[in-house]
Predict the structure.
Amino acid sequence: MLPRATIALGGTAGLGKNCRVREAAARQTGRMPRPGRDRLRELLDAVLAGADDGVARTLDEMAGDAFASPFHFSRLLSRDTGEPPVAMRRRVMLERAAWQLRQGSSVTDAAWAAGYESVDGFSRAFARAFGHPPGTPARGHWLPAPNGIHYHPPMALWVSSPERVPSPVTEQLVGHDLDDTRALLAVALELPEERLREVRLPGVAGLDRDGPQESIVAVLEHLVRTREVWLAAIEGLDAPARPTGAGVAELLVRHEAAAGRWLAAVRDLDRRGAWNDRLIDTRRDPPESFVLSGVVAHVLTYCAHRRQLARGLLRAAGRRIDDGDPIMWLRARRGETTGQDGT
């Protein structure tokens, strides 16, 4: 078992004699600490300096405090913790914001405290990380981390171990699916109702049992409902009712309500290694069982198909929208410029 410990966010003095971050991170990565100067503690201190005051910091500023070049600073942190410094600071600050929101903080106050210049920018970052907007209560405030380093109130980090690192492929597939769906719904909101319901694909259906998907709004409704149905099955709830005539604004509300729960459910399956567990649908005659890995693959497959179908229909209706490429999505999420390969 790895030790659990806390270190203060901010100045070096707050790290204290009982800091075990270096040892924990080293064990997580298979590298035992070297005696003498605690360089990893210094690097972490540089990453998190000013975080308790919501001060925004660049990679150059962090590296300067650690007396290292940005390249070597980033390489050392990534090597010893498995996480780049900018990504670690952003994640820890979002965890802190999620904790503050659970304590009753306003979204605006949480955004400023996290160092964001606008509430919209904070809301987008929060939704990408947690799978739902900051106004929706979160089950917890920790995000997946490759090193077990998390925000722990009131002003500390918690090194938790052992921590199962989520599969980056699964995490990115699900995150991209949710973000892209949200983006498609936002674009569809710009169209008048009659164009959304215009029959554009006569007789087209993704699955026979799902019924036709002939209009933009019909494709988007199937896209949102797919996750709702399987999420209810995983959570042991009744299948949600299917309201008739749902508009795009209602679909966006439904998506936001289910997105965080779906992301949490998939993360839980991954954390527990429960991919081979089965759901048994006793409402069918005879009862039918579903392997959970197959359920997630089913949702991702048909959601990807419907997203691209909706994208084509939106373009045909005169709306401009990106290609929905996961490579570009991941670059944007990491704050990388076009043309970088993320290595």
